[in-house]
Amino acid sequence: MRRERTIQERLRSMTEIAQPHLLATRTDFRADTESTLESMGADTSRPSSRIPLNRTSCYARSFGNPQSRLFWCDGQLFCGLARDQSALIQRLETTGVIRDFAQKKLFTHVEPAEIGVEGFDWVLRIVPSPRVSYVYEWCPAMWRDAALTMINVLSELLARNLTLRNPHPWNVLFFGCQPLYIDHGSIVPFQGETFWRGYEKLCRFLIHPLLLNATGQSLVGRRLLRDVHTGVRSEDFPNLASFTVRLKEKYREGDIAQFLRRLHKAVEDTEVPDPQTKWTGYHGVSSPEPSEWNSKDTTIHRVLSDLRPSTLLDVGCNEGRYSRLAESLGLEVIATDADEICVNHLYNLTRTQNGRILPAVIDFTNPSPGYGVAYRWFPPATERLASEMVLGLAIEHHLVFGRYRLTFDEVARGFASFSKRWLLVEFIPPGADTNANPQEWRPESTVWYNTESFIGALRTEFCSVTKLPHTDSERILLLCDKKE
After folding, report:
1. What pLDDT does 361 receive?
2. What is the number of alpha carbons within 13 Å of residue 375 lying toward its C-beta?
């Protein structure tokens, strides 16, 4: 019988690292803190275009840095820079470093903003404006890729005697399946104390959850990540503590570049388990050719082609059959499912094919709430992921029966909370889903579980509900619209 690897064995590659030597002390690149925007040719003569800071909305917890801030304004994300921080990033921009980071797919692209904001000497606009998902909504493969991106960022900065002040996971966003660091204001001159403090954050919010996932404890890590202050602490997991403390102490005065190379390899080699679940393969082929489409596929394609929603959210996406169909039409697609293995499969496939779908692990019955003061540091999923159209295919009966047991009214309300206009939802009559467990169908449901009752509930949230014809089965497609 195959012996299960212990967590100590899984961590061994991350603890058996070469002997340390002297800390890199390069001085070939330093922040010119004496520079001013005027001396560097920046245009600061636009006071009329400056807007009050209180007209903006702070992103996550970036309000804690007096010299830089990420903020939203008119639906776009900006980075405001002041004083020394502005001079440093100006120099990195004029020497081509910022552009180089973007070309290497480490940082987002930025451009000078057309607005000024009180309190900041320079404002950059992040391009394109991102759709935000947070670390507690990422699948394990996304945790690993985000950690690798963060390590690569730290390595590139170290080569220039720089580091990050705030390597928090909310400063990494996925643009489709590409993780990019967004906070240019977090770049600071290298100091060992700052680096190791950042390393602790990297462990708590990315490496520790990844290691827990490797030992079958992904759910534990995901729940702890919702504590945006502490994440997964090594103090709470003795096996992780031995790794974190020993590694930090071994390299505190050592070769940081070598440390980051070995850390990168260890994270890259960390296993992401891929067990089969009851939901993997639920929709069959994840991306069939048009010649293989059934009547339902054809109907959905026609609806999406005709309506052309600007954004689409696929709820209960499974492995992404209909997310990928929508993506093929050039739509911006977010795909969510409660099963992280299915989301892993979709993420890996989309990343391999350089796709643009943004996957997320979200339970429709318990979407991520808001966190922080007045719930505004990290807004709820219903706000961040709300889309012009929502797909709810082959999911309605799983919400009503099984472990969820929602009413039709709750199902309709849940879909409406994510939809800005349309909902394309599928009603599944009893016995129409051969994959469903017959014991999950509630005996008393024969009285109320029917198309008319479901349509009645949908009409409390949507102005119109239209049946769409297709001939493959007893399943019924319904197109709902919030406008008359």
Report:
1. 98
2. 9
User: Which of 38-42, 437-441, 447-451 shows the lowest per-residue confidence on average (mean pLDDT)?
Assistant: 38-42
| pTM for the structure as a whole | 0.86
The whole-angstrom separation of Cα 274 and Cα 454 is: 36
How far apart are the C-alpha atoms of 72 and 338, rounded to whole Å? 29
Residue type, 408: F
What number is the average pLDDT over the span 380-395?
97
Contact between 97 and 331 (Cβ < 8 Å): no
Whole-number Å distance between alpha carbons of 379 and 137? 13
Q: For residue 314, what are its two tokens?
A: 């696929």
Four-point Cα dihedral 395, 334, 139, 163, nearest 10:
-160
Instruction: Name the fold adopted by 290-481.
Output: Rossmann fold (3.40.50)
Query: What's the pLDDT at 255?
Result: 87
Query: Burial code of 76-85, b = ≥16 C-beta within 10 A, e = fewer?
Result: ebbbbbbebb
Q: How far apart are CA 224 and CA 220, in angstroms?
A: 6
CA distance 211 to 226: 17
Domains of the chain, by residue range, sit at 49-127, 133-269, 290-481
Average pLDDT over residues 328-348: 96
